[in-house]
Amino acid sequence: MSTREKDSVPAYRVVADAIRAEIADGRYDGGVRLPTEFDIAQRFSVSRQTVRRAFHDLVAEGSVYRVPGRGTFANDDRGRYLRHHGSIEDLLNLSTDTTMEVLEPLHSHADIDAAARLRADTDVVRTVVFRRVHDGVPFVHTTVHLPERLGRVLAGAPDLAAGAVGTSTVIGLLEPHLAHPIVEAAQSITVASASVAVADALGCEEGHPVLRIDRVYADSAGAVVEVSVSYFLPERYTYRVTLRREHTGQP
Fold first, then answer.
1. pLDDT tens column, 230-248
2. Are 121 and 108 in contact (CB under 8 A)?
3. Is 250 within a domain?
4. Residue 35 domain flag
5. Burial level of 231, CB count in 10 A (0-12/13-18/19+)?
6. By its UniProt entry, which PANTHER family does this protein fall under (predicted)?
7. 186-194: long-range contacts at Cβ-Cβ below 8 A with a sequence spacing of 24 or more?
8. pLDDT value of residue 251
9. Do residue 121 and residue 202 come from a single domain?
């Protein structure tokens, strides 16, 4: 970075980047408290307001957390897969750094509950079951249901065949065949216990606590095109969402 580029970077970002690098280097491992706002302000010759803004960004992104009366500490997410979700594109981008391993190939069968959630005309749906792996470690078991009419489009897709291993997502495979783009993913998050199938796929004990995330995908015409049910191992996965408030123009 040139001197001119450095001068154009806001001071709070310089501070945040420096602290982020120190966290990555392990300087604050083992519960070591980060320096105080006053100490950091002196070190970087900036105001405490600037340091406060830097900490605000670090807390928002999950790099650090604050304990009232005790100080600021680094989050230890090593060994976990971290995914920051804020858009449909973020869900599509799961394919960029994880691998999908198909456990049950795409197949047609009757499932009254799945058909109801898909608002399907019949009880027949298409289902595929897979797990996702990051750095060689499985962290989620997912079952995806598609309406029969859409599932037929993906019948025979190599990525959804028995034993297939790849970097695709089901919505990524499906969307090019849709008349309308996927614009919404309504989701619910609950706590569940790992079934035998989930435990076998993720390498944990049956009954182990897992994070269940259900997603219902809809296109711009309001049609439900996919329902997925995923079970995440909490010790191997960090789920992060950023919520923003629209500017109202009022103080």
1. 999 988 877 666 656 555 5
2. no
3. no
4. yes
5. buried
6. MANNOSYL-D-GLYCERATE TRANSPORT/METABOLISM SYSTEM REPRESSOR MNGR-RELATED, MANNOSYL-D-GLYCERATE TRANSPORT_METABOLISM SYSTEM REPRESSOR MNGR-RELATED
7. 186/215, 186/216, 186/218, 187/213, 187/214, 187/215, 187/216, 188/213, 188/214, 189/213, 189/239, 190/214, 192/231, 194/231
8. 52
9. yes
Same domain for 198 and 223, yes or no, is: yes
204 in helix, strand or coil? coil
Residues in contact with 88: Cβ distance below 8 Å, sequence separation at least 6, in sequence order: 171, 182, 183, 184, 185
Note down the domain range covering 34.
Answer: 11-74
**CATH number for the domain including 53?**
1.10.10.10
Predicted pLDDT of residue 97: 72
Report residue 194: phi and psi, to 5°: -65, 125
Residue keyed to tokens 């970002």? 13
Structurally, the chain folds into a number of domains equal to 2
Q: Do 67 and 91 lie in a common domain?
A: no
Per the CB < 8 A criterion, the answer to whether 72 and 66 are in contact is yes
- Least confident range from 23-27, 81-85, 134-138, 152-156: namely 81-85
Give the up-direction half-sphere exposure of residue 203: CA atoms within 13 A in the CB hemisphere: 9
Cα separation of 97 and 81, whole Å? 10
pLDDT tens column, 119-128 = 999 999 999 9
* Residue at a domain's end among 74, 104, 129: 74
Q: Are residues 105 and 48 in the same domain?
A: no
What's the pTM value of the predicted model, to 2 decimals?
A: 0.66
